[in-house]
Amino acid sequence: MRGRLVIAAAALTMALTPGAAWAAQDGDDRTTGSHRPETSVSREDPRTDEGVPGYELVTLPNKNVPNFQRRTVYCPEGKKAIGGGAEARGNDAILVGSFPTDDGRGWIGLGRQTTTDNVGISVFVICAYV
């Protein structure tokens, strides 16, 4: 059993390590999922040496709102959302939704509590010039 845990931990580490990847094969091996050690994966990095241009994390701090009420945080003028998230806070809190705004300039979060009529919601958006 311990051997299986070590293998699973190693596979998880490999999956979570940036730049580590298992190469997909061309031809017949592709359908079997086999891996040839001599095959490498190359990928282009769209970032410059300075990182993502205009990278900024904008946070809408936790606030209690009625169940299912949307909370929205926006990027500063000229920037777009490249990611985001939300958190429902409380003992019986459930995050119902976490998604970008239709115009791509912000992030929306909403949730609910199972035992009360309001829920604490925090929302985060990652912004950049794109």
Automatic annotation (TrEMBL):
Basic and acidic residues: compositionally biased ranges: 27-50
Signal peptide positions on this chain: 1-23
Residue span of region Disordered: 21-59
Keywords: Signal
Superkingdom as given in the UniProt entry: Bacteria
Protein name (database record): Secreted protein
Organism this protein belongs to: Streptomyces antimycoticus
